[in-house]
């Protein structure tokens, strides 16, 4: 059945899904929209909630990036076997998204003074609040959130890469276990070739 992933020409919420699809060798059409010319009413108005990513499989349509990431990882060893560990992987992915929401508040702020303050808070408090805890979880579980590679590490990798792009930083440099796992994801078969073919991302201007 034809698989299509619609997202912007950006890493952010789409990239973990792309990484999982490439690693698990699933063929899909990687449809990329231009963030700078968005919104295109003829596309946005036809999306279930007006946002991307959107995943299609034949006639079926799925939104919400974490649901899509988990769905495309199904029937692979990226979903822990144990139900408790499945829940741990999910809770970790939601936590990474809690950080993302804080980053988005900074990115969407239109008042330059307020934006400066939000950036200060990110660098002085928020990043370390989240990433020191994620680092601890990885460290206590052999370098993976649930003891072995799962879809949650792909979410971490995509969100850290997008955060680095938006903040012009390298978050992982202060967190050695995070740095190692991100490097592992980036070098996985399928992901490595995809990254090489994709090139680098440029931060779009948003309206
Ligand atoms: N909770 C949604 C959030 C989706 C979302 O925020 N999408 C943004 C891009 S990252 C978007 O479509 N922005 C353009 C718009 O809202 O028109 C998910 O995880 O998929």
From TrEMBL:
Alphabetically ordered keywords of this record: Transferase
Residue span, GST C-terminal domain: 82-207
Gene Ontology terms: biological process: glutathione metabolic process
Pfam families reported in the protein's UniProt record: GST_C_3, GST_N
GO molecular function, one term: glutathione transferase activity
Ranges for domain GST N-terminal: 1-80
Catalytic function, reaction form: RX + glutathione = an S-substituted glutathione + a halide anion + H(+)
Protein origin, superkingdom: Eukaryota
PROSITE patterns: GST_CTER (PS50405), GST_NTER (PS50404)
EC number: 2.5.1.18
Family of this protein: Belongs to the GST superfamily. Sigma family.
Assembly with partners or alone: Homodimer.
Designated name of the protein: glutathione transferase
Taxonomic lineage of the native organism: Eukaryota, Metazoa, Ecdysozoa, Arthropoda, Hexapoda
């Amino acid at each position: 059945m034809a698989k299509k992933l619609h997202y912007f020409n950006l890493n952010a919420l789409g990239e973990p899904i792309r990484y999982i699809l490439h690693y698990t060798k699933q063929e899909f059409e990687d449809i990329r929209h231009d963030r700078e010319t968005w919104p295109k009413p003829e596309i946005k108005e036809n999306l279930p909630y007006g946002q991307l990513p959107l995943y299609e499989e034949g006639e079926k349509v799925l939104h919400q990036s974490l649901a899509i990431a988990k769905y495309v990882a199904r029937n692979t060893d990226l979903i822990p076997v144990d139900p408790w560990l499945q829940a741990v992987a999910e809770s970790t992915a939601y936590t990474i998204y809690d950080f993302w929401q804080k980053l988005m508040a900074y990115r969407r702020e239109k008042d330059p003074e307020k934006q400066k303050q939000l950036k200060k808070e990110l660098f002085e408090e928020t990043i370390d609040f989240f990433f020191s805890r994620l680092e601890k979880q990885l460290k206590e579980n052999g370098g993976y959130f649930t003891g072995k590679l799962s879809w949650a590490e792909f979410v971490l990798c995509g969100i850290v890469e997008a955060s680095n792009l938006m903040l012009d930083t390298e978050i992982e440099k202060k967190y050695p276990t995070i740095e190692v796992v991100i490097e592992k994801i980036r070098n996985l078969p399928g992901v490595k070739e995809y990254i090489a073919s994709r090139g680098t991302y440029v931060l779009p201007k948003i309206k």
